[in-house]
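ingest -> fold -> write
write: protein_1
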Amino acid sequence: MAKKILIIDDEPNLVKILESRLKVNGYDVISASDGKQGLDKVRQDKPDLVILDLMLPQLHGYEVCRQLRADSAHKDIPIVMLTASGKARDIQEGINQGANAYIAKPFKPEALLGIIKALLWE
């Protein structure tokens, strides 16, 4: 059974690129375009991993991450923050909020796939 990945990002073009790349690599992909919708999809669809942007409508990525880590039903889902903000303090805050990995845009798709495989123990 294919692993399910949820992309929470408000950039439609990036979501399409990620969906395509992940599907070619055998993953089921779902997406959400804001933080609140992302939390709802986690609860409804129970993904195996979340790719999370920071700057989101409704709820900021840090808040989404914090809420997932505080929820016993979803606290163990790996979270990869994929965002344009690559400042050291932002990276540290992402890790502090519970992200398993932090990747700054622009990024190399192979690097993202490597992190996903490592986090999913593939």
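write: protein_2
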Amino acid sequence: MEHLTAAGAPEARGAYSHGVVAGELLFTAGMGPLDPVTGEVIGSTVAEQTARVIANLTEILRLRGRGLQDVVKATVHLADLGTFAEFDAAYRQLMPQPYPVRTTVGSTLPGILVEIDFVALA
């Protein structure tokens, strides 16, 4: 296994790696909409926060020369499932087709509206 830390992603706020490569797959940690330099939450809407989260995840993918087209699965946590349509519209604009498989769940997310993790080709 290879553990990854991306300088362009927010610093880990706990005992976890930004990503782990296991075999042919890259698993990312769940990322929130944090600015990688200041650690502050970026965006007040789920659409704005989704864009920041995907930008943070892209930094992890880049460590292995990968991009959003290499994502095979996304797991999405929304603080309010009532924002699903807004989230989905932002996600559709950012993720290339054909879209990866996705699971979306409602979660308690203190101070943020969305968290996403990816499984991608390594």
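write: annotation protein_2
The chain has a mean pLDDT of 96.
Helices lie at 46-62, 84-94.
pipeline exit 0
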